[in-house]
Amino acid sequence: MTADSSERQNNNETIQEPSPLRETWLRLLKNKAAVAGLIIITLFLLLAIFAPLVSPHDPIAQDIEFRKSPPFTRGYILGTDELGRDILSRLIYGARLSMTIGVISVGIAMIGGVAVGTISGYYGGWFDKIVMRIIDIMLAFPYVLLTIVIVAVLGPNLTNAMIAIGISQMPRYVRLVRASVLAEKESDYILAERSIGTGDFELMFGSILPNSLAPIIVQSTLGVGEAILSSAALSFLGLGAQPPIPEWGLMIASSREFVTNAWWIVTFPGLATLLAVLGFNLFGDGLRDVLDPRLKE
Amino acid sequence: MNENVLLSIENLHVSFYTLRGVVRAVRGLNLQIRTGETVALVGESGCGKSVSAHAVTGLLPVPPAKIEEGKIFFDGQDVLQFNEKQMRGLRGVRVGMIFQEPMTSLNPVFKIGDQIADVFRVHHRIGKQKAFQMAVDLLDKVKIPEPERRAREYPFQLSGGMRQRAMIAMALASPKPGLIIADEPTTALDVTIQAQILHLLKELQKDIGVAVLLITHDMGVVAQVADRATVMYAGRAVEQGTVEEVFSDYRHPYTHGLLHSLPGNPEYRGAKRLIAIPGTVPDLRSLGNECPFANRCSHVKDRCWHEFPEETTLTAEHRFWCWYPTNLKAEDAHER
Amino acid sequence: MARYILQRLLLLIPTLLGVLTIVFFMTALSPGDPARVMLGERANAQQLEQLREDLGLNKPLGEQYLIYLKRTLRLDFGRSIRTGRSVMEEIREHFPATIELALVSMFLATFFGIVIGVLSAVKQNTWLDYSAMIGALTGVSMPVFWLGLVLIMIFSVGLGWFPTGGRMEVRLFFEPITRFYLLDSLIILIRDGDPAYLKSSLQHIILPAVALGTIPIAIIARTTRSSMLETLRQDYVKTARAAGIHERRVIFRYALKNALLPVVTVIGLQFGLLLAGAILTETIFAWPGIGRWIYSAITARDYPAVQAGVIIVSAFFVGINVVVDILYSVINPKIRLR
C-alpha cells in the first residue's frame, strides 16, 4: 500500500523538468526549515572534520579524580562520565562516527538500490520479477527487526551495523528508481537516443537516471538521519559499536545506570543524536518541498 | 430603487493582499438582479466575476481578500454588515451556489441524498427521514431518473450531468430559495449535457421563481438563458444591458471580441482564452486609472491610457464604458 | 470486493514463504555452531555430534529446509536452547504484553496525532501550526530509547509518579487470565472489587506507551495535517460552506471523513512497526514482551527462538498491512462499490 503512494510520488517528481541547480538553491534558502537543517548539518560536519582541533580533551582519557563531575567542573563543559572522560569531547568524536556511519550506510543502500532498481526497471522480465519479489519479502520484515537480525547474523560490530542498515534501507531506492525508470524508458527522448544507437548502459545511467535524481536526493537526506538513529539504536543494544568507542548510542546505553544521580551523562548524548537527526529531517523535508512540484505554488 | 430588486451590488471594490503585491480584483462593480430573472456576468477567467459572486455569499478568503468599498444588498439588507451566523442564514437558505466541476463539488464519501438532506437539516428543524424524503423530491424535480435509488448512491456512481443536477438540487435545498449563483455551471460538461442543464435551470426558474446569477466566459451560454448581461474585464464592468442589446447593439470593443471569439464553430466552445483578441489580460497589480483593455484594443488612442472611460447610458439598461465605442448601426449606415 | 480481499490474502502466501526461507538461510549460514551454544564450551566432540544428530543438523541443507518448512507450517518451532521450553509457549506468554503496549501506544498516538494534525491544518501558518510541526519533526527524529531513559529520569526517579519498569507491582501477584494485564486487572476489579491491580497496571504502562507512541504520534499528526490541508482545498468543502453549513461541521464532518482515509493506512503501518520497534522500549522499561524476548534470544544465540520470534512478528506485520488495505477499501466507497 505504501508502494502505491511512493510510486505515484516518484512519477510526479520525474515528470518535472530538472530545474537549474541555482534556482533550486535559491528556493531552498527561502525555506526556513531547510536552512535550519542545513545549519545543523554543517555544524555537525565541521565538528566531525575538526574533532581533534575543537574537542577540549582526549575522548578516551580518564580523569579518575573527577569522575561523574557535573557540567562546568574544571573545564569539563558538559561534565564527565563514570570513568572521568570528558562528555563534550566524546560527543564531538561521536559526531565523527555518526556522520560517517550515516553517509556510508546510505551510500551502500543508494548504490545498491540504484543499480538494482535501474537494471530491473530497464530490462524488466524475469530479473525484474525476482527483484520485486525479494523486495516484497524484505519489506515484510519490520525495519528495526531486519537490521537487528542482519547484524545478529553477521556479528555485532560497527562495520556490520552499517552493512545491515544499508541493506535494510535498500528496498526503497530500488522501488523509487525502478518506478521512475519505468516511467522514463518509453519517453520520446529515450526512444530517439536509442534510435541513434546509444548503448543500454549509457541510456540507463547517462540519460534515465539523472531524471530521477531529485527523489533520490530527498530520500538519501532523510535516510542519513534514519541511519544515524538506527546505528545509535544498534549500539544501544550492544549490536553496533563496542566500548570504548565514543558512539552516541553506546554512550546512552552506558548511561542507563546513572538515571538516578547523573542527569548529564544521560541527557547530552541523546540530545546530540536528536539534534543531528533533526537536522537531516529538516533539510530533507525542505528539499522535498522545493523539489516536489505538487507542493509548488 | 425598484421594488422587486433581489440583489443589488453597488460600487464593489475587492482586493487581494498577497506577498507579491495588491491584486485589485474588482473595481467598482454595479449590478442588480430582480426576482426571477437571469443575469449573466461574462468575462475571461480572472476578470473578477467569481470574486464578485463570492463576495455576495461571504465566501471570500479574508485575508488575503478585502472588500475595500461598496455595498451589497440582498432583500434590502446590507449583506456586508452580516455576522457569520446571519451569513449562514443567507447561504443555503436564500442563496444557493453551483460550481464548475460537478466531479469534485460533491463530497465523495457521503451519499447524494444525505448531502442534500444535510443542507435542509442545517437550516431547519426537521427529522432525518423527512429531510431525506425532501432530498429525493428535489432530485426528482431536477429530473434525475430513479431519484430514490440515486439518493442512496455516492457521487462517483453518477454521470457528470447527473452530478450537476444533484448540485442544482443542493443549491435549491431550502423552503424559500431566492437566488442561485451558478459559477460556470456547464463548462466541464459536454455540449448536449450542457444544453440540458441550461434548459433545466430555465425551467426551474419558471417553476420556483428563483433568480439566477450566471457566471460564465461563454457568450453562447449567455444567449441561451440570460435576460441581462454584464461584461467584465480586468475587474471592471465594460458593458451592461439586456441580452438583445449586448448581442446586437454592442458598443465596447471587448464585447465585440467576446462575441467574435464564438463563431458557430464548436471548437471554440469552452475555450477559456480569447482567440479573436490579440494580447493578454494586464497585470491586475499594476493597473492605474487607464482603460484596462487599452493594450489589446484596436480603437486605442492616447486618452485611453490616462483615463478610465465615463459611463455612457443608451437605454434604461444599456450602458458602456469606452471612449471610442463601436457603433454597429452607424457603421451600417456609413457603409450603405 | 470479495475478490479483492481474496486476492490480497492469496498474495500473502508467497511473501510469507519468502520470509520463512530467508529466516532459515540466515540462521543456517550465520557463524557459530548451535550445538556448541547449547552444550557450552566444555562439551566434547562426541556429545556435540550426538546433539547435531538429534537436531538434524547433519542432514543436507535442502533436507533441513524441508523439515523446517513442515514444522513451521504446523507452528512447531521446537524448544528454546536457553530454557528448554516450547518456543511457541514462550511466545504465547510474551506476545500479549507487546500487543497490549502497542495498542495503548497506538490509541494515544491516533487520538493525539489526529487532533494535532487537524488543529495544525485549520490554523495553518499560525504559531500553533509551526510549533506542532516542529514538535512532530522532533518526534520523528527522536531516539526512542533515550526518550525512555529521560522519561524514567524525570517521572519515575525525579517525581516518583510512575514505576521504572515492569508490568505490575511485584507484590500484586495474580494468575493471568488473558495475559493482557489491563484487561485482567479490569476483570479483577469487577470480580473482586479490588482497584489496586488496575491502578498498578495503568501506572506501569503509561511511560512505555508514551515513549513507544512518540514516533507514530508525530507521523500521524504530519499525515493528518497534509491530508486535511489537501481536503480543505477541495471543491466539496466550498460546496458545504456555500450551503451555509457551520464551519465546525464542515471541518469535522465533511472534510475530516475524507482526510482520514490516507491516515488509516498510516495508522495500520505504524501499528505493525510498533510490534518490532518495541524491542528498544521494552528493553528500557523491562517490559516482558516479545521484543525483549527476541533480543535476549539473539544475544544468547538461541536459534529456534530467534527464528520463531522473527517469523511471528513479521507475519503479524504483513497481516496487519493486509487488514489495513482491506479496511481502507471498505471505508472508501469508491473502492467498496466498484
Describe the structure.
The complex is a heterotrimer of chains A (297), B (336) and C (338). Chain A is built from 13 helices and no strands. By secondary structure, chain A is mainly alpha-helical. Chain A has a single domain, classed as Orthogonal Bundle (MetI-like fold). Chain B is α/β, with parallel strands linked by helices and 336 residues long. Chain B is 33% helix and 23% strand. The longest helix of chain B is centred in the middle third of the chain and has 18 residues. Chain C is an all-alpha fold and 338 residues long. Chain C folds into 2 domains: 43 residues, no CATH class; 251 residues, MetI-like (MetI-like fold, Orthogonal Bundle). Chain C is built from 14 helices and no strands. The chains are: A mainly alpha (297), B alpha/beta (336), C mainly alpha (338).
Q: Which regions of chain C have little confidence, pLDDT < 50, spanning 5+ residues?
A: none
Q: How much strand content do the residues of chain B show? A: 15-25%
Q: Summarize model confidence as the mean pLDDT of chain B.
A: 79
By secondary-structure content and strand pairing, the structural class of chain C works out as: mainly alpha
CATH class value of the largest domain in chain C: Mainly Alpha
Report the principal-axis shape of chain B. Answer: globular
Element pattern of chain B in H and E: EEEHEEHEHHHHHEHEHEEHHEEH
DSSP strand (E) fraction of chain C? under 5%
What value does the Rg of chain C take, in angstroms? 24 Å
The major beta sheet of chain C can be summarized as: none
> Helical content of chain C, roughly?
over 70%
